[in-house]
């Protein structure tokens, strides 16, 4: 999804421009301004997510590489200097299971790795 796909949340028009960033506790969010209605709004593609997409994607990747939930959380915490719990990683894995095709093969691959 690029900036041309972003529509105003207030009026629904597509005449939107970028207008800076808002710093949050865990990163930045893109701010947009609608030329049609004059309202500003925040990028809502990752709405209701505390952590950014990089943190979530890396946590899922670490888990899919064979790490436990705890190990995945520790690796993400160390890399991005955030505090995530193993329950957060578990929720992300469950939420994005439909687009993470490797999760179906993970158990089989780990069993083959343990046997070798």
Molecular structure report:
The chain has 116 residues and is an alpha+beta fold. It has two domains: 3-42, no CATH class; 53-115, no CATH class. The protein is built from four helices and three strands, in the order E-E-E-H-H-H-H. Strands 1-2-3 form a three-stranded antiparallel beta sheet, with no helix packed on it. Helix 1 (53-64) packs antiparallel against helix 2 (69-80) and helix 2 (69-80) crosses helix 3. The radius of gyration is 18 Å and the shape is elongated.
Which percent range describes the beta-strand content? Answer: 15-25%
Give the helices and strands as they follow along the chain. EEEHHHH
Which structural class do you get from the secondary structure elements?
Answer: alpha+beta
Count of strand segments: 3
- Which strand order does the major sheet show? 1-2-3
Largest sheet: 3 strands, antiparallel
Note the gap between the termini: 42 Å
Radius of gyration: 18 Å
Total domain units: 2
Percent helix, as a range, is 25-40%
Query: Uncertain runs with pLDDT below 50, 5 residues or more?
Result: none
Mean pLDDT: 84
Specify the number of helices: 4
> What is the approximate shape?
elongated
């Amino acid at each position: 999804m690029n900036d041309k796909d972003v529509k105003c949340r207030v009026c629904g028009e597509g005449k939107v421009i970028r207008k800076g960033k808002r710093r949050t506790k865990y990163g930045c969010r893109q701010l947009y301004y609608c030329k049609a209605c004059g309202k500003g709004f925040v990028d809502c593609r990752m709405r209701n997510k505390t952590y950014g997409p990089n943190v979530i994607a890396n946590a899922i990747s670490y888990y899919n590489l064979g790490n436990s939930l705890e190990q995945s959380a520790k690796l993400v915490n160390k890399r991005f200097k955030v505090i995530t719990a193993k329950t957060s990683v578990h929720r992300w894995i469950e939420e994005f299971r439909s687009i993470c095709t490797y999760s179906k093969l993970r158990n089989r691959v780990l069993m083959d790795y343990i046997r070798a």
